[in-house]
Amino acid sequence: MPQLTKKETAKKMGVSRSSLYYESKKEKKDLILKAKIEEVLKRQPRYGHKRVAMDLSARDKKVNKKRVLRVMKIYDLHPKIRIRRHRKKDDENKPAMHYSNLIKDHFPTGINQVWVSDFTYIWYEGKFIYLATIIDLFSREVVGSNIMVRHDVNLIRGALKNALNQKKPPQILHSDQGSEYCSKEYLKLAESFGIKISMSHKGSPWENGYQESFYGKFKDDLGKVSQFEAEAQLIGAIYNQIYIYNNERIHTALKMPPKQFAELNANLNLNFLSTPHHLVTTVSNKMGT
Questions:
Q1: I need a labelling partner for 54 at 20 to 30 A (CA). Which of 9, 68, 94, 136 fits?
Q2: What is the rounded distance in angstroms from the CA atom of residue 127 to the CA atom of residue 11?
Q3: Of 184 and 207, which is predicted with more confidence?
Q4: Average pLDDT over residues 115-125
């Protein structure tokens, strides 16, 4: 059967000949964009269409997020799904501490005002690897971290020491009421730097939701641990992923990586504890909390 010409094909389809050329050019542009999107998703597998568009726009000319969404749908490109994090049950029956939640219904207006802390675990080769982090709540930057094969006070003290070696002490340090965070050694270290202690109410993990959310996304970005041949390789990958999170990965609420946001807002130095409530609420809304 002879191949139809463009003119004959257009006549059979009931469209103009020029529309066939338009569709052909559009498909070619979509394929080019598809390749660029796949490049971004290879680096940042959890990016949705909005952050993919931000990443492409930052590296090249501006790309419309609606066009990115359309191309992702056409070629069935999807970000990785977040893995649900299990609850820590060890501390559920322990008595509550006297420290109150100093950051409830408030949000910082500058860096080094509020740090939030927590730890998580990663199962690898028959044992747990524990990661503790300290995050600046304003910039979302991981300012301190520590990795150990045991979750005791040394795990979280190490993360805090790491943060204090790099940054000025915050006004407030927030955590849940896990036994490690209630230990005298940890509290004494924080208070020796003039830091006020803030804790979530017992059995209220959502009051430290910033860290909970971070770990869910972080583990997805890290990928399957079975890809690592040795424990040292996994630990190196964890620290490398923290670097990528701070310096390369676009944070949805910030529209840029946390480190860049911190540097741009380094001169904001309002006192969190004395900032008027209406100003804190305004900043909180802008940050997407």
A1: 136
A2: 68
A3: 184
A4: 92
Query: 131 φ, ψ to 5°?
Result: -120, 125
CA 243 to CA 272: how far, in whole Å?
Answer: 27
- Residue 142 CA to residue 153 CA, distance in Å, equals 19
Distance CA 102, CA 197 (A): 8
pLDDT band at 12, cuts 50/70/90? low
Verdict on whether the full-model pTM lies above 0.85: no
Two tokens, residue 141: 């930057």
Q: Which residue has the tokens 């490690």?
A: 180
Q: Tokens for 226?
A: 């079975």
As a dihedral over the C-alpha atoms of residue 77, residue 80, residue 81, residue 86, rounded to 10 degrees, the angle is 180
**40-73 residue pLDDT tens:** 887 887 788 888 888 888 877 788 888 888 878 7
Q: Quickly list DSSP for the chain.
A: -PPPPHHHHHHHHTS-HHHHHHHHHHHHHHHHHHHHHHHHHHH-TT--HHHHHHHHHHHSS---HHHHHHHHHHTT--PPPPPPPPP--TTTTSPPPS---TTTT---SSTTSEEEEEEEEEEETTEEEEEEEEEETTT--EEEEEEESS-SHHHHHHHHHHHHHHSPPPSEEEE---TTTTSHHHHHHHHHTTPEEEEPPTT-GGGGHHHHHHHHHHHHHH--GGG-SSHHHHHHHHHHHHHHHHHTSPBTTTTB-HHHHHHHTTT----GGGS-HHHHHHHHHHTT-
Q: How many CB atoms are closer than 10 A to CB 188?
A: 10
Question: For residue 68, which amino acid is it?
Answer: V
